[in-house]
Amino acid sequence: MDFSQATPVASRIGCQSSAPVPDGHRFNHFLEAGGGRLQAHGLDLAALFETGPSPASGLPEEAMPSPLEIAFLPNIRAQVAAMVRCFRRAIDDVGYPAPFHFAFASKANTAEEVVRSTLAAGAHHEMSSDVDVEIARRMIRTGLLPPDRMVLANGFKGPGSAYTRNLVALRAEHPGVIPILEDATELRAFTGSGVNFEFGIRFRRPREEHGVADRDSRFGVDEAEARRLAARIDETPGSRFVLLHAMFGSASSDEEAFVDAVEPGLDLYARMGQSHPHLRFFDFGGGVPGRTTLDRSFDYDRFARLLLQRALARCTAHGTEPPALIGEFGRYTVSEHAAHLFRIIAVKENGSELPWYLVDGSIMTSFPDTWALGEHFICLPLNHLDRPFRRVRLGGITCDRDDVYPPRGSEVPLFLPDLDASDLRETPLYLGFFSVGAYQEMLGGVRGSKHCVLPEATEILIDDDGEGGFRCDILPGHTTEDVLHNLGYGRTARVGAARTAAPVPLG
User: Fold this and answer.
1) Strand runs (DSSP E) across 214-330, as ranges?
2) Which of 190, 235, 237, 273 lies at a 20 to 30 A Cα distance from 304?
3) Helix 73-94 and helix 112-120: axis angle, to 10°?
């Protein structure tokens, strides 16, 4: 029997039987059991909480606090390179005559180290808000966003908005800025600026296609409006229509369904290419999934081949040149680079069907999608993998009933080493949530105050040192004073010092 999947389940999030984990077992391409402990990217994670020799050269020898966040930056660059290789193989197999461009959808994680890593890997940059413009400007100044990289500007860009004004200013600094228009009013916001622009248009399917409907979406324009808008762009001096954007809409686990969903956009591209000579890019947007559990089976190679074949067929049918393809990869790029580690601080039987293992932090604030969407992430112990396991539920230390894992309503089993309170007094148990690098920290709030006023955890940024080892930066977690300051209690002290409030009579 496979110890890691004793019974079929909807999602595999970790160990799923009571058997100890065999030494050398690989959970996925970066998680492996060794000596009863979990190795991630070859690092002994439990050793981070212990005083003594570093788990790897360049990492801290002092014991780190729990909870602890880890960002493994080489994984981001590896993801970019893997997808580029995937499309390169597909281009060769299919005989596709145009290139593929990888763009990072920065809303998935806008942390400086993440954006820096994607650009260092050669990615183009996609953004969606005014603050993003300043991020791009800083990357330009460091040399990480050179003139040959595209800056794809999605998001609301209405007349008079700060985002639009700053995109005009950014275009004067960087030739690769391409605003992707959602409607005709956005074009008016850029005309008359005295700055030349290449534009994209986001296409919205007006009816259900292959089980996916865009008709109630607030994004994009239908075919008739896309044609009118494209004509207006090309008639405007200093403006060119160069890109058509049409996306699946959300993360897909089915390669063929994804390609079916973007095919109407490919067909529109092929027909519009007959009358718009500058049109050369088709942006299939986001939706390519990351591997957030152990059973994701999306075949990236098959997806790339299907997409190229479909694009080639549509353009051949209409006698137009196939487009250069752009993908906006968010979740795929950054899901796997981050982990959040906790210590189990209590085991409670509590009369429940399953024993509760309580972590020294909050699950719902660290990974909001578990609470809001019922999402699952990989959850594995860092030590005691050589002991018997039992099925448990995890609870956070907030007072919220939804601060649990697996999420309420989930039938997915979670097995962890079989320990009781006396065992924990003798030797700690640590566990990690993995593949949590996309959206979770953005939704939970970076360096902000959390539900039940829990402080921000310490974070380690791990990168290559260029000599076969590692180097790290440690971002200290919040103190109580940090939390109080964020919540405005410094003002309370100032106000109290400035005046003495009269007592409020009762009754």
Assistant:
1) 239-245, 281-283, 324-329
2) 273
3) 40
Mode of pairing for the β-strands spanning 378-381 and 430-434? antiparallel
Q: What is the mean pLDDT of residues 444-468?
A: 77
Q: Which residue has the tokens 């981070």?
A: 48
CB-CB neighbours of 426 under 10 Å: 7
Using the CB atoms, write b or e for 188-211: b if 16+ within 10 Å: ebbeebeeebbbbbbbbbeeeebe
The topology under which CATH files domain 31-73+336-482 is: Lyase, Ornithine Decarboxylase; Chain A, domain 1 (2.40.37)
CA distance 427 to 328: 45
Structure tokens at 18: 């009571």
Scanning 253-294, the segments in alpha helix (DSSP H) are: 255-272
The per-residue pLDDT of the chain, averaged, comes to 88
pLDDT, residue 212, reads 47
Q: Where are the alpha helices (DSSP H) in 178-240?
A: 184-190, 223-235
Residue spans of beta strands (DSSP E) within 190-238: 197-202
pTM over 0.85? The answer is yes
Condensed to tens digits (0 to 9), the pLDDT of residues 395-416 reads: 999 888 888 999 988 889 999 9
pLDDT for res 365? 84
**Topology, domain 96-329:** TIM Barrel (3.20.20)
251 Cβ partners below 8 Å, 6+ apart? 286, 287, 288, 289, 290, 331
Vertex 370, ends 365 and 373: CA angle to 5°? 120
Beta bridge partners of 225: none
320 CB neighbour count, 10 Å cutoff:
18
Relative to beta strand 415-417, strand 389-391 is: antiparallel
Q: Where are the domains of the chain?
A: 31-73+336-482, 96-329
Cβ neighbours of 186 (radius 10 Å): 22
CA distances from 350 to 355, 356, 357 (A): 7, 8, 11
Q: How are beta strands 239-245 and 31-34 bridged, if at all?
A: unpaired
CA distance 502 to 432: 51
The 10s digit of each residue's pLDDT in 85-94 is 999 999 999 9
Phi and psi of 500, rounded to 5°? -110, 120
- Please give the sequence-ordered ranges of beta strands (E in DSSP) within 465-504, or none if there are none: 470-475
H helix or E strand, kind and range, residue 331 = helix 331-334
Cβ-proximal residues to 196 (8 Å cutoff; 6+ apart), any chain:
171, 238, 239
- Model confidence pLDDT, tens digit, residues 158-194: 888 999 999 999 999 999 999 999 988 999 889 878 8
Helix axes 73-94, 300-318, angle to 10 degrees: 40
> What are 364's two structure tokens?
């719902």
Q: What's the rounded Cα separation, in Å, for the pair 124 and 104?
A: 6
Distance between alpha carbon 504 and the CA centroid of its chain, in Å?
50
